[in-house]
Sequence to fold (149 residues):
Amino acid sequence: MTSNTKDEETKLTYDERRKILNQKKSQTTENMTEEVKDDEGNVTEEPKLISTVKQSMEVEYTEDGIRLAHDNLSKEKSFMDKRLIDLEEQFEGEMPEDLKKLKDQLQAIGKYDASEKARTEHKAIQERLKIVNAEIKSLTDEIGTRLKF
Fold:
């Protein structure tokens, strides 16, 4: 399942008389199935719309809340600016041959790690599947024949 944010709006208005900042946020998200491809990479099934989620929120900030929000955004901006500079300093040139070989060896080790993680995830999914099956059963018991699945 993929989620696609379709529409996102933020509207700010300041009420000078009450010294309050009103914020209205709305967001529309569409959830769709994955596109199915065959062995050759050709699309056999297009993504289908599963659900549309519409969220809205209204917030009123007092003067202290406005200051706090501004301070937090300023701190986040300065952090991101510094992080961008740090990342730019880490840019390197072309990788030497000996490092490329080492990288290939590490990738082989990574495959074994991925196998162990897959076993752990498999067990967790089996446990979750038991719970989901029970929820599906209770849902179908509740709905009965009023809706066909």
User: Anything to note?
Assistant: The radius of gyration is 25 Å.
